[in-house]
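I am writing to request your help with a piece of structural work I have in hand. Here, with my thanks, is the record as I have it:
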Amino acid sequence: MQKGKFIVIEGLDGSGKGTQIKLLCQRLKDAGIKIYPTFEPTSGKIGVLIREALSGKFKVTQNTIGLMFSADRTEHNTEIQKALDDGCCVICDRYYYSTIAYQGRGSEEQFLWTCALNLNNSGIRKPDLCVFLDVNPDICMDRIDTNRDKKEIYEKADILREVRSEYQKLFDYMKNIGRNENITVIPSDGEKNEISDKLFDAVYKTIVDKA
């Protein structure tokens, strides 16, 4: 049986990532591709704790959240590997890029520590493709203010601006250290169906080219 491909979709809070992933999964199904949607933090015990921390239910340090994400991701990789071995195309909502962009903020030391925590972990696989849906943070905040009654701890305009810069810093860093990552950035401030077309094309091309 042909192993599946591992696709990660990234974006700021309020970027429309969830909507685009739903559209992508349906289009892949319609194209006859066996898919396995998943997300981070996971619904496992560590993932539940992370969600509680992100909601502000209890306070932990930035490093603690980073360690929790890495632990949750390591466990998640067992699930991801099984789906890939079953021939599924795994579509993951967030991965280590998010952890580095969100928890790596603050200093160069913090950034490099968070990178090492994830990129040097043998239990965390590299995706076949990462797509970053790039949306202006002000647009993200307008959507969050309109559509959500409660905000998570990172859903603030100044933090989202920092995180967007951290994503770009991470992508540049990976190139500079010679880490071969397949990353596509899609400007996603525009019309929903147009974004969906670009996302589907990028994912489908990766599946076909690497089949």
Observations:
- The helical segments are 17-30, 45-54, 62-85, 96-103, 108-119, 137-147, 157-176, 192-209.
- The beta strands are 6-11, 35-39, 89-93, 129-134, 183-187.
- The chain has one domain: 6-209.
- The chain has a mean pLDDT of 95.
